[in-house]
Amino acid sequence: MIDKKIAAMLNEQVNKEMYSGYLYLDFANYYADEGLDGFAQWYEIQAQEEMDHALMMRRYLIDNGIRVTFGPIAKPDKKFVKLGDPLEAGYEHEKYVTSLITEIYNVAFELKDYKTMQFLDWFIKEQGEEEKNAEDLLKKMKLFGSDAKGLYALNQELGARVYVPSQTGPAK
Ligand code: FEO
Fold first, then answer.
1. How far apart are CA 118 and CA 159, in angstroms?
2. How far does residue 148's CA lie from ligand 1's centre (Å)?
3. pTM for this one?
4. Ligand 1 environment, Cβ below 6 A
5. What tens digit of pLDDT does each residue of 57-94 get?
6. CA of residue 22 to ligand 1 center, whole Å
7. Which residues in the chain land under pLDDT 70?
8. What are phi and psi of 83, to 5 degrees?
9. Which of 31, 52, 53, 99 registers the highest number of CB atoms within 10 A of its CB?
10. How far is the CA of 113 from the centre of ligand 1 (A)?
């Protein structure tokens, strides 16, 4: 049985991951409206990954005998002026999510909850990758996005992203 505090934090994180998915779908809506279908596709896939993260945490809680409960998912309310704005917001959001995961990890460490630490190892690594992807995307946009040909090529590149379901290792 995992500690009540950890269970509550992970349950809350399920909501946060779903919000991340909602936020990235909102980015995709913006890019679809701007005619950048590749950017939209990239964020649609990112949203699917976020839902995977939420489901993985939900499953972990259920497999450990925790009754999962859901609260409302916040409304994405970012306003975009420039095409790079969602990329900027995405990078900031991933850094925020990393801080949330790290906080849960810290509590698991304090409680000597090695099982949850093992479960969270995947997420720690994933956050490193997600922050890097978001930062790389932002850098590319700054380098090439102000030129029509560069933007077109970037849109093509992002449109080639393929969804791969996320999964943790054997820890349950
Ligand atoms: Fe679930 Fe983008 O971190």
1. 34
2. 30
3. 0.95
4. 17, 20, 50, 53, 94, 97, 130
5. 999 999 999 999 999 999 999 899 999 999 999 999 99
6. 11
7. 168-172
8. -60, -25
9. 53
10. 22
Which numbered atom of ligand 1 lies nearest the CA of 93? 2
Atom of ligand 1 lying closest to residue 54 CA: 1
**Ligand 1 atom at minimal distance to the Cα of residue 49:** 1
- How far, in Å, CA of 92 to CA of 85, rounded? 11
Closest CA to 31 of 167, 165, 145, 111: 145
With helix as H, strand as E and coil as C, how does the chain read?
A: CCCHHHHHHHHHHHHHHHHHHHHHHHHHHHHHHCCCHHHHHHHHHHHHHHHHHHHHHHHHHHHCCCCCCCCCCCCCCCCCCCCCHHHHHHHHHHHHHHHHHHHHHHHHHHCCCHHHHHHHHHHHHHHHHHHHHHHHHHHHHHHHCCCHHHHHHHHHHHHCCCCCCCCCCCCC
Predicted confidence at residue 172, as pLDDT, reads: 52
Report CA(128)–ligand 1 centroid distance (Å): 10
Residue 18 CB-density burial (10 A; 0-12 exposed, 13-18 middle, 19+ buried): buried
How many residues make up the chain in this entry? 172
Q: With H, G, I as helix, E, B as strand and everything else as coil, classify residue 63.
A: helix
Q: For residue 49, how far is its CA from the centre of ligand 1 (angstroms)?
A: 7
